[in-house]
């Protein structure tokens, strides 16, 4: 849908969504095992989450429940997509039920990529070629056990719907600058991010890059000291203060989005931007800075329509589950069960998954026009199993329901891990759905428990991932934020 | 009046267990020879005109070859028609049902049915549990046998107040019966406490709520009813049978507190036999898990829906009860070698109805025995067979 809204309307962020895993680990708990210190906590992905599943969560929180039929493009930024070569965005667009012709792009390799994606989206919409562009920044970066970054890197995702209309945030200017240096890197094939001396990085990286980027906004831009909010990507806990000092913004105007969560990579600056939007007032300006490797991008935005009573950062601090170090290692891949893993016997990109993949990821069913029963999977259900009727319509399944019954497997062959709960739920659309549970403590499982389907990594075989929906607890008040 | 067009004239089975010393073929041979020897007036192998072999998971468990040649080809019967049947847990009883149809059709006068399964030639992870990583890559991921039944138990407990203790009583009863049966895999009585304290396998099922993994084989020789006197003065007739299905995946089930396939198969069998549940004097039912037996009581009409727990509490299904269920020890104690199970249940009823079940013989009051299996993906297959010693049913 090209040119949504009159051509004169401002281009900006029309909607947003945030997803950060509930798990936190105290840096002291990590330090305890390595004889080091640490302050605060970092966010930790569940074992079955990755940058793709978090991107889907953030996007689902951004878009209306019926999906994204009017999206023209989806741009995903990440430094930690599960594949070095394979289109992870295709998995995301299928899960979002985007139209088949939707344009996609991946920008990665640097945490600055989210600024570049927002710039490109703004240009494409302002130029009239695209109407609505979904920009998703998602990262679950890893660092080797015992390194400083192990305690520093967090995980999370933010999505922005960019288009013309009545935006929440309007774009006013952009700039970039800095002098490249090598402060953090992950070489091809390596799993963990490495870092160089933190003091050198702060002294020679942050300040000059932030000043150069702000200067790049051009002569028409306000003196950066005049902006009401600074929203920056935070490679470490002191970065926000350093950036504020460098560009002459009083430190209290800097949003601390990394507090409790850690460095969210490409999602760091976007989350700070959400924080600025939610605490700001109409007409106020935000300077957003995305920094990496000695270079920064600056975006100048104006708050046009602040959301009412939204407090995403506060919610993320409240709704948490604390981990001990062994669980943290298990969830981040540092501790893996041995044994001979059973094989699905299907190559992960088998014809079966090719046929059914769009329906499995899009969570669609074949609704019987005679009796209303929702048949799954639609590719294999051309006749209603309940009544034999042969006119079926593809519809989206409800994602929320309550537990009808369940069982908990205590003995599963590898690569499955026990205990493994399986839930049958009565869904909001009147159907039943069966799926594995994720993140629900055994003692909390009971008939009647509200649950919600979320996309997760079901398993990995031959280095390829199969994604599917699992049930998690539906904590309505604490669900991913979004406007 | 019952159907009674086919009679069983001899049965045989090998003691079930972890038979590391016996191959799949050796188990079949032994069960077959015992069935021949079990024919009162004797039978010549050349009289057998057709064979049906029940094996549920060939290759998943051992070295079984494909097709029915595994039967005729190893028993010196090469040449006769042989069909291998696979139909989930009712595999053995469905092989029997198909043999009945073959004999009743008039095409064959004498048929052999063998059920056999080798489950312990592969490790637990590779055999039954291996299913959890096979099947539909999404809809059946993590699906083991226990996880298909556990949700029924959870729901049954929720809706009817069925208790873990009532479920444990099923294990106690069947292990007690198994202790009296030389063919049983497990031969030690259990207490309720032992069942409740055994490790979780799949909540709400503990270890002794689940049947073991067992090797075994059983055989039966069927003849046209009017020819039975040639072989024995005491044939056991097939009064009726039923086979019914439900949906492919358990999530498609309309109810988690009833197995519709069982209800439908039982309706067919009762109608064919011309009896009601009250006429059943002894039953061998599919107790793959304790909850399954309680639900079977209800689905087979031995009690009202939701009353299964109370039926066992009252001792009505004990060896000396109103309707003894699983005098052999059932799947829980005797074992559940998939393809062999149904044929072994029929063998047990043959012995019970003829008063030959030494050590575990029930009082034969009605002359009717009921056999039942349930299973398959979606727990969607059920076979019910009704046997009788009454010629005119």
What does the model show?
The complex is a heterodimer of chains A (483) and B (393). Chain A is of the alpha+beta class and 483 residues long. In chain A, 23% of the residues lie in helices and 29% in strands. In chain A, the strands form five sheets. Chain A has a nine-stranded mixed beta sheet with strand order 5-4-6-7-1-8-13-12-11, sandwiched between helices. A five-stranded antiparallel beta sheet of chain A has the order 20-19-18-21-22. In chain A, a hairpin with a 4-residue loop joins strand 19 and strand 20 (432-436). In chain A, helix 2 packs parallel to helix 3 (88-95) and helix 6 (198-215) packs across helix 7 (239-247). Residues 1-5 and 477-483 of chain A have low confidence and may be disordered. Chain B has helices at 24-37, 69-72, 91-104, 145-160, 164-178, 192-197, 260-273, 290-299, 308-313, 330-333, 338-353, and strands at 6-13, 50-54, 82-85, 110-117, 200-203, 205-206, 216-224, 236-245, 282-284, 368-375, 381-388. The radius of gyration of chain B is 19 Å and the shape is globular. The chains are: A alpha+beta (483), B alpha/beta (393).
Spans where pLDDT lies below 50 across 5 or more residues of chain A: 1-5, 477-483
Mean pLDDT of chain A: 91
Estimated helix fraction of chain B:
25-40%
Task: Tell me the span between the first and last alpha carbons of chain A.
Answer: 21 Å
How are the strands of the largest sheet of chain A arranged?
5-4-6-7-1-8-13-12-11
Number of H- or I-type helical stretches of chain A = 11
Classification by helices and strands of chain B = alpha/beta
Helix content, binned percent of chain A: 10-25%
Major β-sheet annotation of chain A: 9 strands, mixed
Kindly report the average pLDDT value of chain B: 94
Radius of gyration of chain B: 19 Å
Shape of chain B: globular
Order of helices and strands of chain B: EHEHEHEHHHEEEEHEHHHHEE
Instruction: Please tally the β strands of chain B and state the result.
Output: 11
Strand content of chain B is 15-25%
Low-confidence stretches of chain B: none
Strand content of chain A: 25-35%
Oligomer state equals heterodimer
């Amino acid at each position: 849908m090209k040119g949504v809204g009159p051509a004169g309307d401002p281009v900006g962020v029309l909607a947003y969504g945030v997803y950060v895993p509930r798990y936190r680990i105290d840096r002291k708990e990590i330090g305890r095992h390595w004889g080091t210190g640490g302050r605060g906590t970092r966010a930790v992905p569940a074992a079955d989450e990755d940058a793709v599943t978090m991107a889907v969560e953030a996007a689902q929180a951004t878009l209306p429940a019926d999906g994204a039929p009017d999206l023209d493009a989806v741009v995903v930024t990440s430094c930690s997509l599960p594949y070095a070569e394979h289109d992870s965005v295709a998995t995301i667009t299928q899960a979002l039920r985007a139209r088949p012709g939707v344009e996609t792009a991946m920008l990665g390799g640097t945490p600055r990529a989210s600024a570049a994606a927002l710039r490109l989206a703004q240009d494409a919409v302002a130029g009239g070629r695209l109407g609505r562009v979904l920009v998703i920044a998602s990262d679950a970066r890893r660092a080797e056990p015992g390194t400083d970054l192990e305690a520093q890197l967090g995980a999370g995702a933010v999505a922005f719907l960019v288009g013309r209309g009545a935006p929440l945030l309007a774009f006013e200017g952009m700039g970039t600058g800095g002098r490249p240096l090598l402060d953090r890197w992950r070489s091809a094939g390596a799993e963990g991010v490495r870092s160089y001396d933190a003091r050198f990085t702060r002294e020679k990286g942050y300040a000059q890059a932030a000043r150069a980027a702000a200067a790049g906004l051009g002569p028409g831009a306000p003196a950066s000291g005049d902006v009401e909010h600074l929203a920056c990507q935070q490679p470490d806990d002191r970065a926000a203060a350093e950036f504020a000092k460098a560009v002459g913004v009083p430190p209290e105007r800097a949003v601390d989005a990394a507090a409790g969560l850690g460095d969210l990579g490409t999602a760091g600056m976007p989350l700070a931007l959400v924080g600025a939007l939610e605490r700001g007032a109409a007409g106020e300006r935000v300077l957003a800075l995305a920094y990496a490797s000695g270079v920064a991008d600056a975006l100048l935005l104006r708050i046009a329509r602040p959301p009412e009573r939204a407090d995403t950062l506060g919610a993320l601090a409240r709704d948490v589950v604390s981990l001990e170090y062994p669980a943290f290692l298990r969830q981040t891949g540092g501790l893996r069960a041995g044994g001979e893993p059973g094989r699905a016997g299907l190559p992960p990109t088998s014809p079966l998954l090719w046929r059914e993949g769009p329906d499995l990821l899009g969570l669609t069913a074949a609704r019987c026009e005679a009796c209303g029963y929702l048949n799954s999977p639609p590719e294999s259900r051309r006749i209603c199993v309940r009544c034999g009727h042969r006119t079926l319509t593809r519809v989206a399944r409800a994602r929320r329901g309550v537990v009808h019954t369940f069982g908990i497997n205590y003995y599963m062959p590898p690569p499955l891990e026990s205990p493994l709960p399986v839930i049958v739920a009565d869904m909001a659309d009147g159907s039943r759905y069966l799926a594995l549970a994720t993140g629900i403590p055994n003692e909390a499982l009971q008939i009647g428990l509200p649950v919600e389907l979320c996309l997760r990594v079901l398993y990995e075989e031959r280095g390829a991932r199969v994604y599917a929906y699992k049930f998690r607890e539906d904590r309505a008040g604490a669900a991913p934020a979004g406007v | 009046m019952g159907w009674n067009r086919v009679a069983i004239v001899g049965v045989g089975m090998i003691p079930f267990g972890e038979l590391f010393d016996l191959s799949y073929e050796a188990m079949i041979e032994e069960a077959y020879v015992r069935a021949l020897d079990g024919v009162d007036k004797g039978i010549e192998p050349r009289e057998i005109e057709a064979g049906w072999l029940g094996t549920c998971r060939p290759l998943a468990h051992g070295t079984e070859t494909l097709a029915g040649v595994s039967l005729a080809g190893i028993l010196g019967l090469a040449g006769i028609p042989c069909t291998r049947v696979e139909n989930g847990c009712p595999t053995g009883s469905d092989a029997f049902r198909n043999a009945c149809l073959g004999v009743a059709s008039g095409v064959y006068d004498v048929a052999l049915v063998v059920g056999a399964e080798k489950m312990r030639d592969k490790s637990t992870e590779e055999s039954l549990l291996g299913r959890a990583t096979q099947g539909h890559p999404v809809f059946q991921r993590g699906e083991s046998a226990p996880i298909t039944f556990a949700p029924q138990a959870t729901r049954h407990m929720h809706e009817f107040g069925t208790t873990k203790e009532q479920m444990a009583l099923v294990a106690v009863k069947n292990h007690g019966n198994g202790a009296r049966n030389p063919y049983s895999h497990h031969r030690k009585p259990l207490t309720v406490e032992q069942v409740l304290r055994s490790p979780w396998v799949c909540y709400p099922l503990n270890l002794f709520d689940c049947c073991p993994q067992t090797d075994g084989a059983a055989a039966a020789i069927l003849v046209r009813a009017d020819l039975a006197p040639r072989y024995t003065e005491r044939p056991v007739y097939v009064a009726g049978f039923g086979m019914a299905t439900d949906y492919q995946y358990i999530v498609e089930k309309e109810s988690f507190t009833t197995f519709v396939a069982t209800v439908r198969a039982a309706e067919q069998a009762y109608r064919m036999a011309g009896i009601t549940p009250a006429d059943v004097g002894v039953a061998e039912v599919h107790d793959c898990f304790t909850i399954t037996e309680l639900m079977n009581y209800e689905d087979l009409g031995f009690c009202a829906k939701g009353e299964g727990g109370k039926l066992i509490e009252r001792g009505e299904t004990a060896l000396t009860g109103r309707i003894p269920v699983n005098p052999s020890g059932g799947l829980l104690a005797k074992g559940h070698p998939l393809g062999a199970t149904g044929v072994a249940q029929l063998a047990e009823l043959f012995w019970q109805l003829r008063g030959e079940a030494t050590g575990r013989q029930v009082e034969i009051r009605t002359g009717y025995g009921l056999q039942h299996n349930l299973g398959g993906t979606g727990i969607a297959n059920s076979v019910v067979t009704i046997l009788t010693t009454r010629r005119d049913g």
